[in-house]
Amino acid sequence: MICPRDGSELVPEVFGDVDIDACEKCDGIWVDRGELARIIGMEKDLPMSEPAAVQDLTDRSLMSKLVCPRCTNVEMDPVYFEHSHKTLLDTCPVCSGIWLDARELKEIVRSVYQTM
Ligand SMILES: [Zn+2]
Ligand SMILES: [Zn+2]
Questions:
Q1: 98 CA distance to ligand 2 middle (Å)
Q2: What is the distance in A from the centroid of ligand 2 to the CA of 78?
Q3: Cys-Cys link to 69, which of 1, 60, 88, 96 (CB 3.0-4.6 A)?
Q4: Is the residue at 88 inside a domain?
Q5: What is the pLDDT of residues 65-108, one digit of tens each?
Q6: Structural domain includes residue 67
Q7: What's the pTM value of the predicted model, to 2 decimals?
């Protein structure tokens, strides 16, 4: 698969006991459906997510929507992992995979384990 940010080839990695695909250039991570749930120990990948408001996206480094690296022709939707913690993810409406930019996976893991 190809990184939706910079077009680099994604490299398979293991996070905990979950197979992920990581970009060595931008440190972004792709997780397939169900993999984020396993990483954070939840039943669902995005148990508390909500769609990101357009006005909140103005400070994003890239304004254009990312394209799903698995479906290759589907634009992903920006969502917050949860309301209180504004970690912005991109999720594919077709395959339900999730793109996490650098540090976002760690932010999510930290926020999940803090609130438990
Ligand atoms: Zn990348
Ligand atoms: Zn997809």
A1: 8
A2: 13
A3: 1
A4: yes
A5: 899 999 999 999 989 888 666 788 999 999 999 999 998 888 88
A6: yes
A7: 0.88
